[in-house]
Amino acid sequence: MRKFNPSSISFVAIAIVLLWIKTYIVYKTSFDIEIENWKQEFILFMNPLSFLMFIFGISLYFNEKKRNRYIIIASFIVSSVLYGNVVFYRFFNDFLTLPVLFQTSNMADLGSSVNSLLNVTDSLYFLDFVILITLIKLKPAFITNRSFSKVESRTYLLIAVAISFLNLGLAETERPQLLTRTFDREILIKNIGTYNYHLYDLFLQSKSSAQRAFADGSELVDIDNYIKANYEEPNNEYFGIAKGKNVILISLESTQSFVVNRTVNGEEITPFLNDFIKESYYFNNFYHQTGQGKTSDSEFIVENSLYPLGRGAVFFTHSGNEFEATPEILDENGYFTASLHANKKSFWNRDIMYQSLGYDRFYEINDFNVKEENSVGWGLKDKEFFEQSVQHLKEMPEPYYAKLITLTNHFPFELEEEDQLIEPFNSGSQTLNNYFPTVRYQDEALKLFIQKLKDEGIYDDSIIILYGDHYGISENHNRAMEEYLGEEITPFVSTQLQRVPLVIHIPGHAGKTISTVSGQIDLKPTILHLLGIHTKKNIDFGSDLFLDDKMEFTVLRDGSFITKDYVFTREICYDKSTGKQTDQNVCDRYKEKAKNELEYSDAIIYGDLLRFYENIEYRGDLTKQLK
Ligand code: GP9
Ligand code: MN
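^ thats the input. predicted complex w/ (2R)-2,3-dihydroxypropyl phosphate below
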């Protein structure tokens, strides 16, 4: 039996440790990764290890000569990937992803300036590689290269697996649903490490490429027929009434309808909104339809009239797809289109996805003056955000379509003393308690913004659309919600709580409250029709909210649906007038429709089907044209 000699170190171990330490040093020196506590620092430190153990562990199955060669080559490739990220980061302030690598415009930008991005000192990024080669050449006595026994290899593998799980487990406690939600590259890299991240990215990419490759466009025929059958001509009374006006679309973070026209501790929660809806069109049966992609899903639905995905965020998984989004259509109609959001541009992969949606400009965190003093919770306070956004609006060529995404009313609903205009609620849930003051703050910020638009003369030239992006209070807070609402939260009530406010203000229009059942999916055709743009050729699952006889039907991403009289959720049909379970049959006839809508929309996204639609001039001939 071979004896273990503690004074000798295996070459594999040296390669791993060198690359591990190097990766950590690179994290700290070449990337700007925000660390909030020691646990995050520890995760960051350990995250390259499991991947490196696997990659270099493969060498244990080779004989000595091949093993050394393998270690050298692997070390070079891994170092190059790391270095590639460093160079990319210098330019884009972001990590590499496969879609980005193949996005030619990005690469062209990078290519032209690549010289200025490389430094002589960059050779240091390959220092460990040089050390490995030197060691092999000199063969010093402290290195062993003996073969490993089966038991040793297995122990090695077991340790690698254990480290991976420890890493994932720690990451999960730090960021629940890390992999299924995939919200931000930086957060992912912080938690699973840059190498595992690339593997994960590769997995996502191959999955969607395969689904895309198998699609040939024939799937579109059924979908097109379905859409055509549901299409209604716009209402003449509203078509084109806002032609040529600016569109200011405001995403209200985590704002649910239950706060509108309600009080907490005897005080109004949204006094401004309550007044504003009196001079606007207010939709009080409007539902969010988001999934795991939260804000990004709401953006996706509103601008594409497609459903988001059941798993993951479409902003991440299908950012390279062909879309026919509102910004692109408006751009073709002479509009300047911009999104304004004071967060990192990579969050929700917005920087990449916005190109596919056809945005002309993304005003992200670097376009705002964000300081410690004007920030709270997730970043720039809404009041400051709106104020600085007005400056950007003033610079935009008119007419413009500007989407403003607020942030202060985000979980965990933090607020500074000076911004707290009402007292929190008093229940067992701090989340619900603090939700009210932040909603109140957002309402105040909106009031100031609208006033500023008036002062700047923007108000009368613009239609202003406010919508809640998704729920703010999850079902985890049902008990506290029951206390607040004074009723039991059944699945029926839970579904009704998915209503978010939608307010459309059109200058010169008195407005009214419209109670038709509707959802975020309906906004795209609604906006286009108000601006006098036809949508007959679009693949939109929603319909114009101003139709006289709009079908009262909305599907949520979990398959629940709402009609004029019924709510169907968790396989149970509820009568809206009583809130009680009713005969299943009355819901049955909508079930098929709900299922079809989600499946058709998914097929479009997974198969990237709109790319087949691009050059089709006249919809009527679709079947023929695709043959
Ligand atoms: C982040 C903001 C909030 O940029 O959109 O994201 P959310 O967690 O609500 O999806
Ligand atoms: Mn949100």
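The CA atoms of residues 460 and 508 lie 8 Å apart.
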